[in-house]
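>> received
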Amino acid sequence: MPASGLQIQVLGELAVFVDGRHVAVSGSRKTRALLAFLLLQDRPVTREHLCELLWPHPDDPRAALRWSLTKLRPILNAHADHLEADRRTVAINGLDDRVDLRRVDRIVQGSLTEIAVTDLESAAGLFHGELLEGMEIPDCHRFNEWLIARSEAARRARRLILETLTARLATTPEAALAHARARVAMDPLDEGAHVDVVRLLGALGRSAEARAQAERCRQILNTELGATPGAALREALRGLGRTAEPRAAVVVTDKASAPRVTEPAGLFGRAEECLRLEAFLEAPADRPVLYLEGEAGIGKSRLLAELGQRAVSRGQLVLAGRSWEVESIRPYGTWVEMLSELDPDLVPEDLRGDLAPLMPSLGQPAADHGGLERLTAAVQGLLRHLVRVVPGVIIMADDVHWIDQASVSLLSAVTRDPGEFRCGLACAGRPGEVVDNEPARALLRTWNRGGLLDRVAVGPLPGRDAAALARSLSADDVDGIVAACGGNPLFLIESVREGRGTAATGVDSLVADRLSILDEPTRAVARWAAVMGHAFPAARMAELVSAPLAELLDRTEILEQHGILRPHGDGWDFAHDLLRRGVLAQVSGPRRMLMHRRIAQTLAGESDPDGSLAGDLAFHAGNGGEPDLAVQAAITAGDRALRLAAFDDAWRTADRGLLQVARLERDAALERHIELLRILVLAGLGRRRRIEITDQLEEVADRARALARPAAERTARWLLSVVTEEAGDLEAASQHSLGAEAAGRAADPRTRVLALANTARCLLQLEREPERAGVLLDEAQDLADTLELSALDLHWGRGLLHTLAGDHDGARASLTEGSELARSQEDHWALFECLSRLSMIDVATGSTTDVERRHEELEALAQKLGGGSETALARTLLALARRQAGGSAEELDSALSDLRAADAKGLLAYALNEAARLDLADGRLEAALRHAEDAMAAATAVGRRHQRDRASRITARVTALITDTRERGETA
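>> returned
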């Protein structure tokens, strides 16, 4: 690349240089991914597509896109307007000759045999690794799919370049050898590349090295593929003058010879931070949340460990856990980690069943565990118990930039009223990556606004303290290493451990050097650990590397002594996430895919009664090219997330499964496609992605009918009714419900019950054909009694039918049963509907206290459903109750205004009729007439016959009273 101006590297880790100087891009991985994606496009990209690619589900994806663009403009437009954005599209122009992959594409256009060797070598020199290494984003599956496809294309181009150079430089074997070795490093499973290296080493007279290379090839193929080398390698060995296959073993690093670097004693240069730790421990109630933020390797985890040690020395109980990048879709993953070391004897007997999803050591979860609400109550109960039996409890959460939504919900619950639980919470995260995690960002924002947060910025070590740290490690060249490490303690420690006098900008090269001195089986353990992505149990690793447990323990001990792994629970973890990334960078794409596949097959063979391994299985199967296994695991993981009310985790898992469905045969995968769509709808995505999900549901419903699969068709049409009803299109919801009923009649008895009850409930919700709805409910009830089945829509539908008939007691009984079922099934929308109908009955009968009591739960449910008409209705019901109890009309008018703005005409008609009734009772005839006429218009617009008739009756009565009043006035 030219040294001047703007230069961008995408072959390897993304890097931007201005006049040869490295320029940091925003710590947000999504911002860097946006830059990379735009750089590799040939035309402008719509903002809508970019949002779908990188911000598929946040509340305001366009705002997130605008924020990222503001971070890129100063870099890209410093000297020329390379970043161009209008209201519809975004593009990066004029940088083709300054992006390494673009230059490669230009060099290798046409036949490689016609390109000069110097140009091919120039192209080969631009590859610093895989395309956009480390750029995968856990919840952006469409971006990851694009990245995989572009990486494969770049890898093919590199392989062709290296193969061509090896062949064309055959007469100069020393030059050809470098390219053949690069092919082996790029793909260690490419036997042909090993063969070329062996032949070239033989041509150079280096037979011993050639045989060692052949043995490495044999070990790799045996370890990774369970295969043996083919005839080509044997032929290459014959050229060395030996016909037998080599058996010379690679030297195994002896444990005693592994470098031992004493870990630093104490903290260096962290006096101010330690004062903040002490203040937190002394009075956690003042600022109950301590947040350590800083870049990777800067020392946040070390400070958390120091905090934990100080807390333990005071007799306090420490619950420590961390989040993992690959587990960001595992519900409550951070809490599972926190509670894994808690003595089960400290858990009260009455909480064990509810806490079992977080503590597998407690056994199976309670059969009727109630999702987030009950789990939250159990965690709160546990903390109340613990602070009574120990001097204090400190909760520590590391790497919160990867925390999952469900864990955030629990953290929010236990810090909502910190004085109640008397616990301190300390966490650590990287500010740039927190930006990409909306739940984490929202939680920090909430803590900050509530005055709970003590934010501690952990910066680089000053030179004097960095030197003291280096001397404590017996560094040979203290001044050189301090100058190079930039104040980052991890880089400094790893550089000393490696015996370098300088530190790299990252640890990848340090890790590569450290691995190079180890034998292949030991390197294999490190690679498997890196691909797994999180702490791993010993038994699973032993199965993956096909080694006896004793041998595995020897290998892991060597890796511990080299500072790569550390003990963790019943297995091991990387000493730092940057070390994991460094090892992962040594694993080629093809090999990584095969390793993911092997991990998936291993997980699939393990017992998993509660589905807790399904998220990992879906991840590894998807990355390992096992779509069938990945889809089934995604369904299992998504359903588990729904049961635990971890809705964000549910839709992320289902999204991942939908990408895998596209790789299966369409008709064979039909039912599983529908199951994944069901998870999306029940997780609340029907509102945010209505058009996309509706289109998919209509397509699979039609296909199910064509294939004569009634149960599948019924489920798809029922889901369509849910999505359209939630969107306010009640006419479409009615038609879809009727379609579900028709399909359900040809299905199994259980499906028929659900279809009949759902159709009846939908008709009653629309105030259509109550007689027919009653017949359908009776038919469904008879069949449900035979099957001993309790269906939510049966109770809900009965409640609506009783309401239309004016039977308040019957309606209250049925809706109460329906709400209990909805609560147990974590169906927030059905629960809101049942509870709001109960409040409507209470308004009608004057039970205003019950409306007040129910309001807080309705408000909470409305927020989970995204606000909008639900929030407006909850507020209106409360205002109606207060108005009936003698409150002001102004509160009700304000609530009605919100309901109008929500454009929920059916609900508005009901509320206006109630307001007219109250006005009439107070003698406010003009207001009553105005409200009744507005109710008539709203009810007529959406075909609500019951509310229209009611408005007509009120209007007639008020008009008569007004006329009578005027006549009496004129007579007087």
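>> Residues 141-168 form the longest helix (28 residues).
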